Amino acid sequence: MRKFEHVDGQMLIGGARAVDIVKRFGSPIYVTDEDAVRENYRAVYGAFAKRMPTRINYACKANTNLAILRILEQEGSCIDAVSIGEVETCLRAGFSPDRILYTGVNVSNDELRAVSSKRVPINVDSLSELERLSKITTELPLSFRVNPEVGSGHSEKVITGAKSTKFGVPKHQIIDAYARALELGFRPKGLHAHIGSGGQAVEPFIRMTEVLVTIAQELESKLGIELEFIDIGGGIGIPYRPEESVMDLDLLAEEVTGRIKAGTTARTIVVEPGRYIIADSTVLLATVVDLKDTPDKKFAGTDAGFNNLVRPAFYGSYHRVAVANKFDRPAEAKYDIVGPICETGDHIAKDRELPKLDEGDIIVAYDAGAYGFTMSSNYNMRPLCREVLVHKGEMNLIREKQTLEDLLRQVKVPSRLLV
Ligand code: LLP
After folding, report:
1. How far, in Å, CA of 10 to CA of 21, rounded?
2. Domain boundary residue, one of 258, 278, 298
3. C-beta separation of 401 from 384 below 8 A
4. Binding site membership of 62 for ligand 1 (Cβ less than 6 Å)
5. Each residue of 230-243: pLDDT tens digit?
6. Beta-sheet strands, E only, within 91-154
7. How many domains are contained in the chain?
8. Residue 194: CB within 6 Å of ligand 1?
9. Taking a C-beta distance cutoff of 8 angstroms, is the pair 364, 17 a contact?
10. d(Cα 17, Cα 22) in Å, to the nearest integer?
11. Which domain holds residue 245?
């Protein structure tokens, strides 16, 4: 859980005062501390790399801002991409095609053609996708995503490895899938699974690794395939709530790499963290615009709603909140932090003990870097907000706010409706 400094009761992010950021760029606004991104990357890479050759495929669905991608490119990261849009964004950010692995689900032929035309390796999710890809190319390195029948995650909605989900080649078909790939002329290089996102326990990673090791052994004994890499997916949880603890990265790396080294000839482990790298590097700042006392609750209405941060409304997720300009004041009252979206479910936080709030106060929602901006929407015709990068006190705008014109650009009205 990242600690933030404060001076004279004012919260600092990457050496800049939160209130100064809002003064200069407005709110709501996402603010990322560059050093925190680098630190997180190095922590996760280091834990695995000291045990075996490691490739980190940053799951860019968590945050695709080009500036963030540049930081991770400089750090030496590779990419997990799930769409042609993510692939092209990462190519523009300077990643070479061989540093990207495309793992789609329910992939169309158009997307298969587009991704393979960029020379980006494809991690195949189904037998149907394999057959369709073989008609486009068999030249690119190939791997399969298997459904390991082991799931984990902070919500039912993000558990991907369970048997009942739509993801991956079913476990009982996986050997046949590799056999078919050989028949079609592919050179399979890797095996991948992803149990889900935001789980806090190491144990499901161990069970998934055991499934992957067994499959790798069968591939070698039955088909003579020696895998180059085993990809354990992402899903390393972070502590969102004060009482939650940080996952022991060293233990995770030890348990997983130990089994891969002992049981397979795969030289490299691939890990695909999104949340771990970016979540706690970024906060969402919002201004209190309205205060309301009802018989049941005190509401603090802010200018950020679930159009900006949908996780609380969509998953019931918890984000810690604080008051950036009253950072050293004790809690005095309980508030629901709510937004301007016309739905009862629109909230950032519920029942939080905070200092007494006034209009104009700046609310900070923590751990907003992963699946924060990337899941924001234009609901209620609200433009997407700005993003700022802070580095040792220097603030850089890394995304301009959308305009109403941006929202209306693609809309067309038939001429008969214009008279
Ligand atoms: N690899 C694959 C194949 C994935 O599907 C995902 C996430 C990751 C890696 C990265 O998982 P992470 O390390 O970030 O947990 N919107 C949800 C999370 C959905 C994650 C989808 N897949 C949320 O806000 O919690």
Report:
1. 12
2. 278
3. yes
4. yes
5. 999 999 999 999 99
6. 100-102, 122-124, 142-147
7. 2
8. yes
9. no
10. 9
11. 34-278
